[in-house]
TrEMBL record:
PANTHER family: 60 KDA LYSOPHOSPHOLIPASE, L-ASPARAGINASE. It is an enzyme of class 3 (hydrolase). Residues 14-205 form the L-asparaginase N-terminal domain. Residues 228-337 form the Asparaginase/glutaminase C-terminal domain. It holds the Pfam family Asparaginase_C. It comes from the Bacteria. It comes from Mobilicoccus caccae. PROSITE patterns: ASN_GLN_ASE_1 (PS00144), ASN_GLN_ASE_3 (PS51732). Its EC number is 3.5.1.1. InterPro entries: AsnASE_II, Asp/glu_Ase-like_sf, Asparaginase/glutaminase-like, Asparaginase/glutaminase_AS1, Asparaginase_C, L-asparaginase_C, L-asparaginase_N, L-asparaginase_N_sf. Keywords: Hydrolase. The active site is at T23. This is asparaginase.
Length: 340
């Protein structure tokens, strides 16, 4: 376990904060038709709400999007990845990057950046469960912690992380587990560390491929990404749903099944039809944690399917979309799922 204090005065870290919207930039006063409106405040507004932040680090700010994260598409995430790749590949790159983001899809964006950015510079995502003008707003504390981690030498080489509620989560393992609590996020194998009162503690490091060891580079991706759909199925599912996916031109389907990614006989026949039509099939679990094992309760070899391992369906969708830009062979796709 590594524990270290932040850099001392005299060499302030240069931190770029990129705003994308979300609840952290939300306002109740901005709407009278719902509880609050996400993405209203600018990144300058967010940094101004953290006392002394500009005294601790040298800040640069940039507003890339001002959206509720439920509206962020894969194209939005790739635009963010390209922008950060440009910044971090330049001669005047910052010492750390913080991205303010909505919590509903933060984990997908973090995983995209984790797989695509080849850099030792810390990239940290954070957000809030309560809007900025809520009496119990958690955004300022999360942003302060995120900047602390982004500026810290121990965060170098961790890839992309999410800092939330005092915990430092790896991008691959983090998942939003609660719809309303301030401690909404968990990691399947536990957080990488935590931050408290300016102290950063790192107790683990990512084990899967990312960054320099990742099979993916943002500059190598095509202009149009393969379409991948997620299906949460049941034995009475209307066959026309899968037929519609086949007819849509989708390149992949992530199946979210009960238990360890189980598939009913009725649904298996539908997925086999999709596979015969050339669509890659990835089998995952709808449970939320645990392992979907290859050739476990279902013979993936017999069906020519990919096993998603411990990735939840929405993250398996991210990885499958990226993987299909490199290969459509089941064995090669499985290797990418086993190593990333």
């Amino acid at each position: 376990m590594q524990i270290e204090s932040p850099p001392t005065a005299g060499g302030r870290a240069r931190i770029l904060i990129v705003g994308t919207g979300g609840t952290i930039a939300g306002s109740s006063a901005a709407t009278d038709t719902q509880h609050y409106q996400a993405g209203v405040l600018s990144v300058e507004d967010l940094t101004a709400a953290v006392p002394g932040l500009a005294d601790r680090v040298e800040l640069q700010v940039e507003q890339l999007f001002s959206l509720d994260s439920v509206d962020l598409t894969l194209d939005h995430r790739l635009s963010l990845a390209r922008r950060l790749d440009e910044v971090l590949g330049g001669t005047d790159r910052p010492d750390g990057v913080v991205v303010t983001h909505g919590t509903d899809s933060m984990e997908e964006t973090a995983y995209v950046l984790h797989l695509l950015l080849d850099t030792e510079v810390p990239v940290v995502l954070t957000g809030a469960m309560r809007p900025a003008d809520d009496p119990g707003a958690d955004g300022p504390a999360n942003l302060a912690d995120a900047v602390t981690v982004a500026a810290h030498p121990l965060a170098r080489g961790l890839g992309t992380v999410v800092v939330f509620g005092g915990q430092i989560h790896g991008a691959r393992d983090i998942t939003k587990r609660h719809a309303g609590r301030l401690d909404a996020f968990e990691s399947l194998h536990g957080p990488l560390g935590h931050v408290l009162d300016g102290q950063v503690v790192i107790g683990a490091r990512p084990a899967r491929n990312f960054g320099a060891t990742s099979a993916f580079r943002v500059g190598d991706l095509p202009a149009t990404m393969p379409a991948v759909e997620v299906l949460l199925t049941h034995p009475e599912m209307t066959p026309s749903i899968v037929l519609a996916v086949i007819d849509s031109g989708a390149a992949g389907i992530v199946h979210a099944g009960p238990g360890g990614g189980n598939v009913s006989a009725t649904v298996a026949a539908l997925l086999d039809a999709a596979r015969q039509a050339g669509i890659a099939i990835v089998r995952t679990s709808r449970v939320g944690s645990g392992l979907t094992t290859r050739n476990g309760s279902v013979s993936d070899d017999e069906h020519d399917w990919v096993c998603g391992g411990d990735l939840p369906p929405h993250k398996a969708r991210v990885l499958l979309a990226l993987a299909l830009t490199a290969t459509a062979e089941t064995a090669e796709l499985q290797t990418l799922f086993d190593t990333h």
